[in-house]
Structure prediction request, 221 residues.
Amino acid sequence: MKAVVVLSGGQDSATCLALAVRRHGAGEVAAITFSYGQRHSVEVKYARQLAKKFCISAHKVVRLGFFREITASALLDASMPIRRGRKCPNTVVEGRNAFFLMSAAVWAKALGAEEVWTGVSQADFSGYPDCRAAFIRAQERTARLALDWPVKIVTPLMRMTKAEEWALAAKLGVFEIVRDETVTCYNGIPGAGCGRCPACRLRRRGLREFLAATGSSKPRR
Ligand SMILES: [Zn+2]
Prediction:
């Protein structure tokens, strides 16, 4: 096995999975999805579908159910309205990627894989500190030391805008899959989503920019 992809079921991770499959072949790629009490838990179902669609060799859904006990987030509590906040939206789940990436690295070692792929992006930055390149570098070093395993955290989307991500999906031949069969929306509505939450706005703006650049007409979704 070559790579373990952190697969949430959203646009970023689906694009990342497509890229990993293109790079290594589906037989060398596994994916890990986390069920952590997220309000849009329907994304786990979409992650399973994506794993099947891309015919990857293994997919694991792992429960990390303790976040609600140690932190508050609008992403973990459907009764909390989603707000933008001064630094970052109140949808941030503190330290989430640290847990995700370490768990993925542990499984990667068990599979003999030396790469962990994640679709985090710094360019269209939502203000989440654990999406920054500096954090990823530190986390890679931490995982290497913790596991004594030469794991590399691969972040192909780190410097891409959402529009560039759509272009990449199109280039990989998975534009329709990413557009229609992923959940980015914090309210758990697949495809174009609710259109109002910050995740939907970011996704939609990127899609418009991409379609404008390619001269396509207005999208169905
Ligand atoms: Zn939404």
Q: What stands out?
A: The first strand starts at residue 3 and ends at 6. The pocket of zinc ion is lined by residues 185-187, 193-194, 196-197, 199-200 (CB under 6 Å). The chain has a mean pLDDT of 92.
